């Protein structure tokens, strides 16, 4: 007979990844499985089979559905990476704040949650879409202790609902303010890396230049970005490191760059002719108007996974990021001081992503 008092094994932690089909959620699920966690993946749409992930399906805006699906679920750690874009910030606040509130309320009776990690972003410093960068914003690099801007903002609402639930249920929390996240995920609403790969494909098809769509400020100024794998590393670290408890962290790769340097390098890899800023922004939504039929032709000819261009590219989001008329980069000192030293080369992240998208038949390789 085994003496249970001598069994010092640590129980396997169980992660609930909310938004498992998205850029951040899929990267998180992969990393957690690799590290030996038990992983539950929650999404609105039925996810594709992911090795090591138990799929859960529910509409995150339906409190009753969440209670039903999560009634017997006992995660030790929750990773919130999902959001639902609405027409106004008032609706963003109602819907996205409600998702955080209702999900954590559904898990509350089980009493199992030890930590909740919430992914947000730099609209915390820049303002919501309706007031994006239009008022006074903090000096760069952005620091986590900046005062909130005087605008309604769904990120603030999500944080408030997180802290409210933490006070009620006694778990620790972390918030991760990522910059533009690049990764692989079909159907994602904010996906610059995949958008640029699709844009380059259509440029090759029409023998058109690969035109930088954004502002002169973004073309000439310093900026940074966030790789989905790096974001996943930081979220898992914060969920398991006592020094990171109850803290908000900026999340970026750790390098800075100028688009006027990076754009030609991306163009060379994608097999297109780069064209930089030339007097005014040239948004992708305008450049790519009416491109869906051409994409469908390419998808059928090349055997691509997705013929619906809207599920591959998010023109509006890339236009918003590259069209900003202010410098945008973050300070990483807080996470470094707490012990997180993760780093990525942004150029290498783009190149690796393009390799993956081609291998997965999301976009065709240049000929």
From TrEMBL:
One Pfam family it belongs to: Epimerase
Does the keyword field hold Oxidoreductase? yes
User: Top EC class per UniProt?
Assistant: oxidoreductase
Judging by the UniProt lineage, the source's domain of life is Bacteria
What's its EC?
1.1.1.281
Q: Gene3D superfamilies from the entry?
A: NAD(P)-binding Rossmann-like Domain
| InterPro entries hit by this protein | Epimerase_deHydtase (IPR001509), NAD(P)-bd_dom_sf (IPR036291), PRISE-like_Rossmann-fold (IPR055222)
Please give one Gene Ontology molecular function term for this protein.
GDP-4-dehydro-6-deoxy-D-mannose reductase activity
Q: Which residues form the NAD-dependent epimerase/dehydratase domain?
A: 15-248
Keywords assigned? Oxidoreductase
CDD domains per UniProt: 5beta-POR_like_SDR_a
For this entry, the protein name equals: GDP-6-deoxy-D-mannose reductase
Tell me the organism: Nocardioides aquaticus
User: Its encoding gene is what?
Assistant: rmd
